[in-house]
Amino acid sequence: METIELLILLLKFIVFPGAIFCIAYGFFLEWFDRKLYAKFQNRIGPLLTGPKGLLQPFADFVKLLAKEDITPVGADKLGFTLTPLLTVAVSLFTLLFIPIHSLTGVLSLPGDVLLVLFISTVFGLLIMFAGYFSGNRFSMVGTERTGLQFVGYEIPFALSVISVAAAARSLEITNIVNYQVNILGLPLIVFTPIAFAIYLISALAKLEKIPFDIPEAETEIVGGWQVEYSGKKLAFFRLATDLKMVFVSGLAAALFLGGPYGPSIPGLEPIFYTIWFIIKTLIVMFILSNLRSLFARYRIDQVVHGFWKYMVPLAVLQILIVEGLIFMGVI
Amino acid sequence: MSVEKRIFKIPVGPQHPALKEFEHFVFTVDGERVIDVGFRIGYTHRGIEKLAESKTYIQNLYLCERICGICSAAHQGCYAQTVEELADITAPPRGTYIRTLIWELERIHSHLLWLGVAAHEIGFDTLFMLVWRDREVVMDLLEMISGNRVNYAMSTIGGVRRDISDELKHKILKGLDILEERTKYYKEVCMKEQTILARAANVGILTREQALKLNAVGPTARASGVDVDLRRDDPYGAYDEVPFNVIVYDTCDVLARVLVRVDETFECINMCRWLLENLPEGDIRTKFARKIAENEVVGRVEAPRGELFYYIKSNGTDKPERLKVRTPTLANILPVCEMLKGGYIADIPIVLAGIDPCFACMDRALFIDENSEKKWVWSREQLRIYSIKWYKEHGNEVVRERWKQ
Amino acid sequence: MPLPGAMEKELIKLIAKKPATEMYPFIKVEPPEGYRGKISFDIEKCIGCGLCAKDCPAGAIEMVEDERTKLKKRPKFIYSRCLFCAQCEESCPRKAIKLTKEFELADYNKEAMVIDV
Fold first, then answer.
1. Coil, helix or strand for A70?
2. What's B122's domain CATH number?
3. Three-class DSSP category at B321
4. Looking at residue B360, what is its pLDDT?
5. Which of A291, B115, B249, B292 gives a 20 to 30 Å CA spacing to B144?
6. In which element (H, E) is residue B351 found?
């Protein structure tokens, strides 16, 4: 009996909704993002690999795996090799907390909102290490910029998540989803629209997309922190970026859009919930793609300035609004 | 970390995504601030001026056109115009009008191209893609007129090579309407979009005094409040008849350079319309005898990037004795270094792009002039050693000859 | 504070619009009238004067022996060197040279890129 339970758990970790599903979905999200970005620019986007170019991100990944892998002389060998692996591992780990096929993630513990926030902070740190270990001048500039941007976006990101947690009066993702589904009956975005906006903007910065692709700005510092990475290591970084996209949109779905809950046939919940999860994450991804095709890249000082001057006060205001609503008994 | 350690040098180029061509800049930076700029030009040198001396006047038309891919008509037109003066012939009015039309259409294409590149440099890829999509309209027009998208080969010595039919005229007028509407929209975007303003306003300042002192030319100078435009100051082609305004902004930053170019595009569109409507009847070219008597002439045109300068010396044969070109980018390279000092690393690409650099134009001749030697990629030290050696071998006769003169 | 995002309206419109990209290698694009492409040469009209070879800026035309023309010479076009300026078309006194609309000229074999009638 115990062996079977263990086996099911293992399948959950590795196949669905764990590693393999998340990686495949990450590739799909990248395709969706690229296709939309192209659409906004009146282009076609990926086209030839697979139906409508669906397999393009996967093909890119496989191609990069086969490329020559160079470790520069000036690099810190161990750190240089470990950071890509760690980045992928960390992003996969955070995904286990996201509810995909049921109202609970594969892993769920009291206070996991804080744990997820903490681990997502590690993304930024790992990027800094990645740039620092490669010992290139452009990487150094990229590292400096990552660090500065990090100071900017982490606090508003955390505050926007906290305001949701405050509304649900819980620090457990499962409880927040349950609160929206069973107690409130509404997704929390209705009461926390400002937090949702701040979450998305900080998420753009976390994913290093325009207008916050400053650490890897191609035209300025030639790819920034990732300039020395090639072959397998670069492939892993790209995979990690895709996984981060799943994480960011999944967390947004869980916290603001009522998790994977939606109308379904009793008994077939896992399938319907997965479909609802996909729909909700695609909505988030659509907004992110739209935002990134709308702006020019900011300068690093403008980013830090903007986040601290506008985003942090707004996030605090949102928390006050939530507290007020709780006080009045609305939520 | 000590102060010295924070200051380090960032090489930009010869190959760098911000530069679409090969040029080397060294930036001394303190964190994100640029303290000093050094540059080394000459990476795309192709020996065109020397080559021109071994080709006939007719052949050189196509060689000069290939000095620059984007302002090819300006180069070819300037060359043709200078040779016409050299041979003392004049192009018929219709020929001159069509030549001017090509110049202006090319200016539209060049300015739109620049707007796209500038948008790309500040990471605004959507604007870049859309501007370039609409630039195709003018590219197609030029292809319809001349038979090629880039190297139009329209000017020839004594006029132009192809006529414009009435049917084509209507097509061009229609295309110009689309271009005007789209350019209006892009101007609105540039004035309204906060992220563009954040990156372009008060960035890369070049004051009027600096611009005058360092001899900035073209839109770069006009964005710094220097009211200079060869088309008005020293009219050539049909410019003494076409009505147009010289656009001058005095905010001296990158935004001013954007607006000067966008507004100039409107002027170009109006000029093209005027030229088409007032196209005189008659021949498009006059005959040109292949040999030119001994003479020397300086010719200037206002290329999309600024003043373009040609010097040609003839010696009675069908080949020029000397051809010298000064492109606008060479004049703007010192101002751009001044603009970059004190800015951020993030501003380097947009400021560099701000002068609309064309390094391939610029690098025709550097050491050639002094040495008449093809090996130009020398450091100063190598050059010194070489010159000592050379003078040891040939020096005496040369010095004696020079004294005689 | 004015918000960024001036192009939003345009972007929403673009979602429904057809892409501007030409599907070139799959769907051919017809070049306009007067396009300067591959050279076509009519030996019947040629007199062998050699003006085309003299004016060619790229050295793409060589004069070779031929009994058929009046001056016992005919041009040989090495179009891998050609830069499509159409100067030969203009220089030819008998209109024997014409530039066609054909532009897909790449070949694996350099020797094959010659027009020799």
1. coil
2. 1.10.645.10
3. strand
4. 63
5. B115
6. helix B348-354
Are C8 and A295 within 8 A, CB to CB? no
* Helix ranges restricted to H, B249-363: 254-277, 328-340, 348-354, 359-362
Please list every residue in chain A whose beta carbon sits closer than 8 Å to the beta carbon of residue B5. Answer: none
Q: For residue B334, which of B43, B118, B37, B110 has the smallest C-alpha distance?
A: B37
B27 φ, ψ to 5°?
-110, 125
Average pLDDT, chain B: 81
Residue in chain C closest to A291 (alpha carbons) equals C5
Q: Are B323 and A278 in contact (CB under 8 A)?
A: no
> C45 phi and psi, to 5 degrees?
-85, -20
Residue B249 located in a structural domain: yes
pLDDT-derived band at A30 (thresholds 50, 70, 90) equals very high
Residue B387 belongs to a domain: no
Q: Which amino acid is at C7?
A: M
Report whether A61 contacts A72 (CB < 8 A): no
Model confidence pLDDT, tens digit, residues B36-78? 888 777 777 778 888 888 888 888 889 888 888 888 888 899 9
Q: How confident is the model at residue B25 (pLDDT cuts 50, 70, 90)?
A: confident
Q: Do C36 and B153 touch (CB under 8 A)?
A: yes
Number of domains in chain B: 1
How many angstroms separate the CA atoms of A106 and A96, rounded?
5
- Sequence spans of domains, chain A: 19-328
Task: Sort out which chain A residues have CB atoms less than 8 A from C20's CB and list them.
Answer: 42-43
**ipTM, interface predicted TM-score of the complex:** 0.87
For each of the domains in chain C, give its residue range(s) and CATH number, in order of start.
Answer: 33-115 (3.30.70.3270)
Alpha carbon distance C2, B191 (integer Å):
12
Structure tokens belonging to residue B172 = 């061009």
Q: Judge whether residue B367 has pLDDT over 50.
A: no
Whether the CB of B55 is below 8 Å from some CB of chain C: the reply is yes
Q: Supply the pLDDT for residue B377.
A: 45
Which 8-state DSSP code applies to residue B374?
Answer: S
- Which chain A positions have a beta carbon within 8 Å of C19's beta carbon? 38-39, 42-44
